[in-house]
Structures are given as structure tokens and as C-alpha cells.
Amino acid sequence: MTIDPAVAMGNTKVEIRGNQDCTTDDSSQPVRRCFDIDPTTPQTATIRFHYAAGEANGNAEDAVNAYRWTGSAWQPAGGTPSHSSGANPRWIEVPDVTNYSPFVLDDQTPTAVTLQSLTATAATPLWVVLLITVTALAAAATLIRRRRLA
Description:
Blueprint: E1 2-5, E2 12-18, E3 33-39, E4 45-51, E5 65-69, E6 74-76, E7 82-83, E8 90-97, E9 102-106, H1 126-149
């Protein structure tokens, strides 16, 4: 990865995780390389993201864009990207990046998936549970009575 800021960004934490899924989104299949950038002083920059051809995950090289996580959605990371066009490792260069967070590379916008509702049903009907409980209590009472008589 190359970061070319307009002004110094101070200490910048960069985490790159290769050959793994970066989202839980099943609607797209992002490049299998994850990026997380956390500068002390965020500044506008041009960023070149590198990835191996084997990590492309079916993405069309010249259609890949960089998306950053906003906390609730993925949005394009900056301006119009340029591409390596056949180089290996491949790269995508994005100008005018102003916000920093986790980034993914994809040839379509990833969709944020959230849980909207949850419905649960009992695997065993309540009347069966009650019948078993009553039967167990009756059996215990019978055992206690038999021990007292013995």
C-alpha cells in the first residue's frame, strides 16, 4: 500500500490482512485482501491498494473500486480510481481519500447487512414439556411413598 498525503498525517496505523474475507456480505465477493488505515491526523491523500491476482475473487480488474466502512454502510473511498491493467501484483489507486477506516476492494458496492428482526419458536411444544414435568413429579412422589412404606 502507498499513501501519498497532501500534508503529514502523523503516526498512521495500517493493517493489511491478505487472502481472507473482509465482509459478511453475500451479495458481492470483494477482493480477498482487507485494509484498515488509522492516521493520527487525517489528511486528503491518494492511496494505492495492492493485491495479488489470486486474491481477486472474480472481480473484474478494471472495474474494482475501493470502499470504506462508515460505521453503517460501505461508500466509495475517494475520487475516480485508476488500475494496474494486468500487473501482478494488481493495484488500484484512489485520489482524494479524506476519511479513514476499514477499506475493501470490489467491482460492486458491498451491502451492509444488519439484523432487522428475530423470531424464535420452541422446538418442543409447551404442553409436552409440562406433561414430562408432571410425569416426573408423579414418579418421584411414588418413589418417596414406597420408601416410607418400606
